[in-house]
């Protein structure tokens, strides 16, 4: 994990995870993207840390991350939290399992991301039965905690318990954290342990809604993106694919400069000397 406040940040409104999320990428980039996708928020995804785990060197990983940025899965930048009372800008690295185009990242930078409605149910196979959100969470539990791998029958039996958690306002991350935190070693019966935790840690029922209190909408954080190669900050429209114009080989604006004449040089030097003499002759207070 990175220092608190840094590390991987998940982009909002991503589609559910599938086995073909990164099929459009080359093998190396697909492997790196799949590994980062399964890391928790706040994980250190610098090239030095990734090189300690993945079978690639730092140069190869740096190239792979730049390619992921060009493909719309990654953006680097800085963020300032509104109303934080601090003038510090925090370095951010945002990752999206769902590839985004430059317009989406520009809207994300402005805090104006269009909401997407992921499908509540995902078919397991063509012509097969649909699986509920609770079943999918339980079936994927073994990816987060291998000791809690469940059978299809266990997922079907435990799905109603998870559905009750969702009905009480729990998110997928909340359920996963409650099921996987502080696991005993070894886990003799994953099904029994998951059932007990789903029962004993069930959140309370939400209180009846009262009169809504009109509160000012929170201001979105200030964000600025950076070039993947040189790190120069810029407006999103100036960083297509996360790369600035100079790093793409585009020529910058022409600068017309006329050399000063000798008379102008002597005049500037005389003015500088006069200012220094005037400063030395001022009386000290």
Query: How do the SSEs run, as a string of H and E?
Result: EHHHEEHEEHHHHHEEH
Read across the widest sheet, the strand sequence of neighbours is 1-3-2-6-7
**Main sheet attributes: strand count, strand direction, barrel closure:** 5 strands, mixed
Question: What structural class do you assign from the helix and strand content?
Answer: alpha+beta
Output the number of helix runs.
10
> Any idea what the shape is?
elongated
| Total discrete domains | 2
Distance between the termini: 56 Å
Low-confidence stretches: 117-128
Helix content: 25-40%
Mean pLDDT: 82
User: What is the oligomeric state here?
Assistant: single chain
Q: What is the CA-based Rg, rounded?
A: 27 Å
Strand content: 5-15%
Work out the number of β strands.
7
Question: Concise description?
Answer:
The protein is α+β, with helices and mostly antiparallel strands.
Describe the structure.
The chain is of the alpha+beta class and 285 residues long. The chain folds into 2 domains: 1-112 and 220-248, no CATH class; 123-202, no CATH class. 37% of the residues lie in helices and 9% in strands. The chain has helices at residues 27-37, 47-51, 58-70, 102-110, 133-139, 141-144, 152-167, 172-180, 190-200, 262-281; strands at residues 8-10, 74-80, 90-95, 122-123, 130-131, 222-226, 233-234. A 5-stranded mixed sheet has the order 1-3-2-6-7. A two-stranded antiparallel sheet has the order 4-5. A hairpin with a 6-residue loop joins strand 4 (122-123) and strand 5. Helix 5 packs across helix 7. The longest helix is centred in the C-terminal third of the chain and has 20 residues, at 262-281. It is elongated, with a radius of gyration of 27 Å. Mean pLDDT is 82; it is low at 117-128.
